[in-house]
Amino acid sequence: MAPTTTTAAAAAAAAEQQQHTTRKVLGLAAHDASGHLTPIRISRRNTGDDDVAIKVLYCGICHSDLHTIKNEWRNAVYPVVAGHEIAGVVTEVGKNVERFKAGDSVGVGCMVNTCRSCESCRDGCENYCSRVVFTYNSVDRDGTRTHGGYSGMVVVGERFVVRLPAALPPDRGAPLLCAGVTVYAPMRQHGLCEPGRHVGVVGLGGLGHLAVKFAKAFGMKVTVVSTSPAKRQEALEGLGADAFVVSTNASEMKSVMGTMHGIINTACASTSMNPYLALLKPKGKMILVGLPEKPLQIPPFALVAGGKTLAGSCMGSISDTQEMIDFAAEHGVAADIELIGADEVNTAMERLARGDVRYRFVIDIGNTLRSD
Ligand SMILES: NC(=O)C1=CN([C@@H]2O[C@H](COP(=O)(O)OP(=O)(O)OC[C@H]3O[C@@H](n4cnc5c(N)ncnc54)[C@H](OP(=O)(O)O)[C@@H]3O)[C@@H](O)[C@H]2O)C=CC1
Ligand SMILES: O=C/C=C/c1ccc(O)c(O)c1
Ligand SMILES: [Zn+2]
Ligand SMILES: [Zn+2]
Question: How far does residue 190's CA lie from ligand 3's centre (Å)?
């Protein structure tokens, strides 16, 4: 009996300790692969010495949130509180925090911790850390599960928090924290930011519409490659794209064949790479950022014959993120959004699944979900 009593006492002590070191916060959680979201009370750690406590004001809905809550990547551990496009205001900082103070406008993106010692971390590419801790559906270094921005507040280590300039409206700025940096970082790293060059953007959704805006801000020629003829006018007149082709229209695709220096492929569901690779010039690059549920089909000749490159890219580093935010504020780049209340989130997920959004849903957490 003694070990059982000891174990029970230890568990009670741990639970009591836990109560003193955490607080309860309201969030929106998926509980199974239906992806249906309902209110939940989650624990957030008290503000540690290196932490920034943030009242969430706005959180964008990324398609990765939808892939995750529906377990399309087969890695969901329920309950899942998604959200990694977080814009908010600092409420409290730990004693070692130097860059932020209460009242500051800040953002948090896709990651909230890393190992800090691997080659990627040492090189400032912590988005490729082998032990990266994602903002939600991940296990933090202290063993607790991470929960994202579909919640009233978050507690995040200072090094994973970025500053939001006053020139950037926080509701339209929130989607930059994932969608923005995910397209900006590879465009910069692969030279798809040189004025006069021709870039294709596959998939005109949350990521794609920001890729168009960044490419135009870089001074590039932009062609949108879309499955949705209805987006033509918006792309050309609203977003400033130079051309628009429908990927199922053979003559439109032929008209841009072999013309692109690079492509940012943001499609959430297309798996056949052949039609897109054909649009590249010889030695052109296609950067894949979309993460469809199913494996890709890549005929070898589509790559080899033209000496083409197919690369992947995941999120961006924290320094990429701050650079992108500052660039966006300076050049007037922000997301086109549909602002919704917390009670509309399930309808928004259904609409996102069928591509019915212009171009990012953002949840008005601050006004529609309690932070305590
Ligand atoms: N690599 C990374 O770090 C990140 C990856 N992602 C991933 O990027 C993808 C896009 O995310 P997001 O922009 O939020 O998603 P959205 O749903 O907003 O946009 C995706 C777009 O893909 C296009 N699309 C949909 N179905 C198909 C299809 N069958 N064939 C071709 N195109 C299709 C649609 O554009 P259209 O109507 O123009 O055809 C749609 O608007 C997701 O898979 C997401 O998980 C997201 C963030 C970071
Ligand atoms: O929306 C961004 C998600 C990126 C991502 C990349 C890789 C991975 O394993 C994830 O769970 C998320
Ligand atoms: Zn995302
Ligand atoms: Zn690391």
Answer: 20
Asked whether 315 lines ligand 2 (CB < 6 A), one says: yes
- Longest Cα–Cα distance in the chain: 80
**What ranges do the domains of the chain cover?**
23-177+335-368, 180-312
Its pTM stands at 0.95
HSE, CB side, 13 Å, CA atoms: give it for residue 179.
Answer: 39
Bridge partner list, 362: 60, 339
DSSP β-ladder status, 198-202 and 260-265: parallel
Task: Name the fold adopted by 180-312.
Answer: Rossmann fold (3.40.50)
Asked if residue 134 has its Cβ within 6 Å of ligand 2, the reply is: yes
* Number of neighbours of residue 46 by Cβ within 10 angstroms: 13
Pocket test for ligand 2, best of 63, 125, 315 (most atoms within 8 A of CB): 315
Question: Which atom of ligand 1 has the smallest separation from the CA of 63?
Answer: 14
Mutating to test ligand 2, I would choose from 314, 317, 352 the residue with most ligand atoms within 8 A of its C-beta, which is 314
Query: From CA 369, how far away is CA 354, in angstroms rounded?
Result: 26
ipTM confidence:
0.97
Give the CATH number of domain 23-177+335-368: 3.90.180.10
For residue 6, what pLDDT is reported? 59
CA distance 324 to 85: 14
Whole-Å CA distances, 241 to 21, 30, 151, 245, 263: 51, 37, 35, 11, 14
Same fold, 23-177+335-368 and 180-312: no
pLDDT in tens, 26-83: 999 999 999 999 999 999 999 999 999 999 999 999 999 999 999 999 999 999 999 9
Q: Let me know if 22 is exposed, middle or buried by CB neighbors in 10 A (0-12, 13-18, 19+).
A: middle
